[in-house]
């Protein structure tokens, strides 16, 4: 069972026209659990009267501040309501149930780090850069944004060592030559990147090409749109261990939508396999993992699966639901 903390909004500040910063803490000055760079927390938002919304945000504040957690939230008008709720409704003093930090994007403090942040993707990168600077590592940061006005935390970052940072805004500087930058990296470098899907896809594609052999790539995905064609496949059945119910998942629906169709409530958030909220224990059967959360080793264990996108290789799955 996930541990939930009843945090309070201590501060809400505007970081740019489209981004607000939210600082959360516990009442009575109780210390918050420790976290590592790359970690995120999940907020339970009372954005609808029917059911809460669950949204994940990277922790981007001071790791050694055990009394405050800071997140930065981009207002996405096309969102399903989470970021709009935080921008327009959430206020200082409000109570927000929050999970303890989880980390699907761990920072290994490699000797040579090349950080690439696209837009709001700076949030998990920011603590990594600070950790790299504190450890005296050889680091560089490439910070890409569409508009100059979208940069957040830039001045703070420049205080660490401005000579290691390149900020590139397309409205002012034109298109960035990512390929040229990547070609200059050597095999000792680990690239950490978080940003829009297009940026991450381009990095993966460049790394696949022979010319780029050598550097290691560690990615954090967010805000991807699930492609319907990647969610479909063979029909199979899901048996819910706790209720004993068996449900057929049609070839054109996900386990999550099949459960919803049957009126079974399951906690979910991104619905595109990137956040880990719907992670479910597999009791038997063979999942076909289609998420971006589990590592290769975790996939091979087949102990859990993300039911918003993953399907079954076997005719039946038994889940701990
Ligand atoms: S709801 Fe986010 S991974 Fe399934």
Structure notes:
The chain is built from 9 helices and 18 strands. It has 321 residues and is α/β, with parallel strands linked by helices. It folds into 3 domains: 4-99, Elongation Factor Tu (Ef-tu), domain 3 (Beta Barrel); 112-221, Rossmann fold; 228-319, Beta-grasp domain (Ubiquitin-like (UB roll), Roll). It has a 5-stranded parallel sheet with strand order 9-8-7-10-11, sandwiched between helices. The protein has a 5-stranded mixed sheet with strand order 13-12-18-14-16. It has a 4-stranded antiparallel sheet with strand order 5-2-1-6. Bound molecules: FE2/S2 (inorganic) cluster. The site of FE2/S2 (inorganic) cluster has 14 residues, from loops.
In short:
By secondary structure, the protein is an alpha/beta fold.
Which SSEs are present, and which pair or pack?
Layout: E1 4-16, E2 19-25, E3 40-45, E4 53-58, E5 69-74, H1 82-88, E6 95-99, E7 112-118, H2 122-134, E8 138-145, H3 154-161, E9 165-169, H4 170-173, H5 178-183, E10 189-195, H6 197-208, E11 216-221, H7 228-231, E12 236-240, E13 246-249, H8 255-261, E14 279-284, E15 287-288, H9 296-301, E16 304-306, E17 311-312, E18 316-319
Parallel strand pairs: 7-8, 7-10, 8-9, 10-11, 12-18
Antiparallel strand pairs: 1-2, 1-6, 2-5, 3-4, 12-13, 14-16, 14-18, 15-17
FE2/S2 (inorganic) cluster binds next to loops.
């Amino acid at each position: 069972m996930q541990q939930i903390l009843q945090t309070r909004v201590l501060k809400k500040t505007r970081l740019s026209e489209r981004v607000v910063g939210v600082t959360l803490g516990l009442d009575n000055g109780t210390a918050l659990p420790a976290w590592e760079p790359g970690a995120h927390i999940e907020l339970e938002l009372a954005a609808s009267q029917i059911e809460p919304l669950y949204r994940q945000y990277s922790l981007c504040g001071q790791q050694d501040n055990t009394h405050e957690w800071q997140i930065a939230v981009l207002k996405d008008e096309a969102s399903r309501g989470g970021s709009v709720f935080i921008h327009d409704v959430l206020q200082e003093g409000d109570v927000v149930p929050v999970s303890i930090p989880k980390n699907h994007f761990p920072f290994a403090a490699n000797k040579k780090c090349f950080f690439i942040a696209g837009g709001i993707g700076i949030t998990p990168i920011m603590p990594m850069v600070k950790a790299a600077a504190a450890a005296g590592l050889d680091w560089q940061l490439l910070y890409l944004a569409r508009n100059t006005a979208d940069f957040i935390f830039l001045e703070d970052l420049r205080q660490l060592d401005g000579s290691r940072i390149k900020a590139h805004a397309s409205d002012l500087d034109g298109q960035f030559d990512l390929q040229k930058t990547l070609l200059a990296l050597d095999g000792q470098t680990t690239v950490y990147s978080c940003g829009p899907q297009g940026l991450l896809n381009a990095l993966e594609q460049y790394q696949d090409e022979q010319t780029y052999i050598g550097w290691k790539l560690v990615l954090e995905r967010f805000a991807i749109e699930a492609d319907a064609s990647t969610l479909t496949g063979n029909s199979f059945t899901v048996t819910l261990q706790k209720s004993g119910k068996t449900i057929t998942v049609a070839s054109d629906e996900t386990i999550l939508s099949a459960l919803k169709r049957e009126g079974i409530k399951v906690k979910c958030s991104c619905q595109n396999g990137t956040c880990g909220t719907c992670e479910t224990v597999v009791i038997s059967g063979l999942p076909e993992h289609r998420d971006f959360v589990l590592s290769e080793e975790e996939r091979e264990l087949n102990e859990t699966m993300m039911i918003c996108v993953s399907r079954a290789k076997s005719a039946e799955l038994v889940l701990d639901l």
